Each structure stands twice: as C-alpha cells, then as structure tokens.
Amino acid sequence: MKKWLIAAFCACLLPALVSAQSPSINKFYRQNKFEEGVRKVKLPGWLIRLGSRIGAGQIDEADQEAREALKMARRVRKMRMLYGEEGNPIDQRKVDKLIRNVRKKDNFQDLIYVRDEEGTKVNLLIRTNGAGDLIRNLLILVQSEDEFVMVGLKTKLSIKDINTLIQNLPEEADIKVKVPVPELDPEPEITDEPEV
Amino acid sequence: MKYLFIAALLLLGMAPTTQAQDNDAISKYFEQYVEDEKFTVVYVSPKMFELLGKLDLDHLEDKEAQVAMDMAKELKSIRVLTTEHNPGQYYKEALQKINTREYESLVQVRDEGENVNLMIKEGNGDTISELLVLVGGEDEFVLVSLMGVIDLKNISKLSKTMDIKGMEHLEKVEQREE
Predict the structure, then answer these.
(1) B26/chain A closest Cα distance in angstroms
(2) For a FRET experiment, which of A141, A167, B77, B166 has its CA 20 to 30 Å from that of B42?
C-alpha cells in the first residue's frame, strides 16, 4: 500500500517537474551549440548560488543594490546561453521556430518585443506559474546583423522577491520603466562548457 | 420562451465577438508590419502589465514617475510602429484600414506638412479604453496604440517615463487640455 502511495505521489509530482523545463529551449540549445561561430555557456544553479555567495563577500557593505541583485541571482536555478559575436550565426527561421514553439508548446508569454532602427530585435518571453506570482522561466533573445544572444533562465523568482528588491533599493535609485535594447554582451571571462 | 432564451444566448455570444473584431483592426495593422524591417517596433504585452500590477511600487521618490507607474498598472498593452519610409503613404493606409469611425477624435493637427491624429475609444463609465495616435508627415509615420484604463490628464508623464520613440506625441493631449 505504501509503495502505491509513493508511486501515486511521484506520478502527481512528475508533471510539475516536467513543466518546469522548457523542451523547446533545450532542443534549440542542443541543435545549435556546435554551429560555427556559436559559443555556449551553461551554468547550473548550484554554481550560480556559489558565485553569488562569493560575490556577496567581495562587495562593499554599503552597496545595497549589488547585494540585492546577488540575492536575486540565487533564485536562478539554471542558465543556458548561446551567443555569436562575429556575425549572427543562427538562421532566422530557427529562431522564429523557437519563439513559436515556446509560445505554443511550453506556455511562454511575450513580455516585450522591440526592433530598433538598426534592425536589432529583442524578445523577452516568460513563463509563470498558474497564479502568475512565480517566474519559472525567462527567455531573452537579441538578434542583429552582427550578433546573436539567447539566454534561457530557469528561476524560482517570485513577485515577493522583486518587491523586496524594490523596497530595499536605496532611496536615490532612479526607477524608470524603459524599453531599451538590453545590453546582453556576454562577459568573455565566463568559462565555456567543455566540448563533448 | 425557448426561442427567447436561445436569442438571448446568441446576443450574449455576439457581444465579445464584436469587441474582438473592433480590436482586430489595430492588431491586424500591427501584425502586418511587425516583421517589416522598414519599421521600428515596440510591443509591451498584457502579461508585462499584469506583472507590473503585482509589484509594490508605491514608494517612488520621483512623484512624476509614481504617477506614470500607477497609470502603467492600469494599462493592458502598448504598441508602437514607426517608419521613415514613405510616411505619407503609410499614414493614408492606416486611416483607411483602421475603422476610425469607432474612435472619437481628440486632437487633429496639421502643421508644416505633418498630420497628427489622437483618437480615443470610451470604455465603461467615464474611462477611456484605448488611445490611438497616428502621425504622418514628410519625415515619419507613427502609430501608437495604448489599451487599458487610460488617464488622459497624466498621459505625458507616462510618455516621459517610458522613453519610447513615438510616444512623445502623447504630450499633445495635455497641450490640448491647456
């Protein structure tokens, strides 16, 4: 009877675990990581948390903004990144397909879409829990003639976390809702995943 | 009695359909050019405003930003299309394709070859559910569509805070109020 109960519990838990993943992002990452000109970064959650703790020890006590940002980073469970700096190495049709798939199959929703005068496109998509108060996944895409950046984040970031961050920001912090092209130039010192 | 009941159901069913068709005019026009490289595009989705509505942003030092943020929480979406290619042609096309009779004209200006049209759609009670800005001249074509609950008195604060190209035309609403 106990085994049945455990099996039933696991069966109930499985959809929740599966839904936390984004198969479309995983597939896109797998299919394009070895393309010519593509560089890849994959950071597991434990490494991000470790890094944020080390970082917290290094920054100035008074730098409240940086401390809060590092706290937020601890909520990131996984990060996958593909980028190309010398021209855009990814076929536009593949990116369009990724966007379609995350919307239809993985229940992502658009947050912001921007295309500027130079033709740089920025897509920000998100997947939340049913109540909409927990951000489970974020997908950031930046495409231009010269570069491509895809950042896929698996997070456990709640609205409460963001509210705490806002409340703990120093009073002089200038909060504005802007819709710029985010600066997502990857830092070259991040270690690449070893080639398989 | 049964027929009346069916007729009532059909009428109830038609109401959202009609509304969806109303929304479609702007949506279709936007969809037509969203991937056209001649246009710059900004789309801020309902989901973004839903998240914004959940954030505790009631303690901003900058009062103007606070007003803009309160207003943004009531919005449902922002769509901006701008182009410098054949602006006059796109302006005429927008006026033809978008059923402007559904809107009430708020501001209409023609100045040095530039046409500016600000139109509103009224929501429930005294609220405004949509603000549409169409600008067409020698230099550029601009379409701005704001949906949600819109406070015209503070619209310029929103445009200043959001810093999106094309939204500076919203300041003409307050110039009209003065």
Answers:
(1) 17
(2) A167
Task: Tell which residue, A53, A91, A89, A79, has the closest CA to residue A138.
Answer: A79
Each residue's pLDDT, cut to its tens digit, for chain B (178 residues) gives 444 444 443 333 333 333 334 455 788 888 889 889 899 999 999 999 888 888 877 666 677 777 878 888 889 999 999 999 999 999 999 999 888 888 999 888 888 888 999 999 988 777 889 999 999 988 999 999 999 998 887 787 777 777 777 778 777 776 665 5
B134 CA to chain A: closest CA distance, Å?
A: 19
CB B34 within 8 A of CB A123: no
In which residue are the tokens 């789309």 written?
B43
Enumerate the residues of chain B whose CB falls inside 8 A of the CB of residue A110: 43, 45, 47
| Cross-chain Cβ contact B65/A112 below 8 Å | no
**Tokens standing for residue B26:** 């702007």
Pairing of strands A39-44, A76-84: antiparallel
- C-alpha distances in Å from residue A178, one per residue of A114, A147, B14: 12, 22, 38
Q: Cβ contacts (< 8 Å) between A179 and chain B: which residues?
A: 42, 44, 162-164
Give one DSSP letter per residue of chain B, joined into a string: -HHHHHHHHHHHHHHHHHHHHHHHHHHHHHHHHTT-TTEEEEEE-HHHHHHHHHS-----S-HHHHHHHHHHTTEEEEEEEEESSSHHHHHHHHHHHTTGGGSEEEEEEEETTEEEEEEEEE-STT-EEEEEEEEESSS-EEEEEEEEEE-GGGHHHHHHHH--TTGGGGHHHHHHH-
Chain A positions in Cβ-Cβ contact with residue B37 (cut-off 8 Å)? 115, 119
What does the block give as tokens for B78?
A: 């922002």
For residue A72, what are its two tokens?
């937020």
Is the ipTM of this structure higher than 0.85?
Answer: no
- Cα–Cα distance list, B117 to A23, B93, B145 (Å): 46, 14, 12
pTM: 0.74
CA gap A10, B89 in Å, rounded:
61
Tell if the CB–CB gap between B41 and A113 is shorter than 8 Å: yes
Q: Name the residue of chain B whose CA is nearest to A123's CA.
A: B43
